[in-house]
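Feature request disguised as a bug: please show the residue count (119) next to Lipoprotein in the output. Example input:
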Amino acid sequence: MRRTVIGVALMSFGLAGCGGSTDRAAPPVTIAAPKPPPPAGPPVLAPDGRCTGPVPAAATEIAPGIGECELVRLKGQPPTDVLVGESGRGQREVQVLYTEPGAKELYFFVNNRLDRIVK
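Example output, currently without the count:
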């Protein structure tokens, strides 16, 4: 009988901490959503043909090595179509199509640098 009384007493002490007041509980913490990282490097073309930032005015002609947005600035009009993808080596690859009267021009970019032109 004495064991039962001691066992019940120990159980009641153990359970006493479970039903107490929540006044001592820490207030909920509000976590702010992480801010998107700033764009790294020069602006690039989005799939809709718009640049992601201000276009540098360094390029004066369409030549290998210019950036995607520099091409659009030099052409003076938005592209007909833009395909944005990634190579198997993790490089950004972009194809920019311009359809002009009597001709089509396809510009291939790798990591925001003009690689080749197909006319």
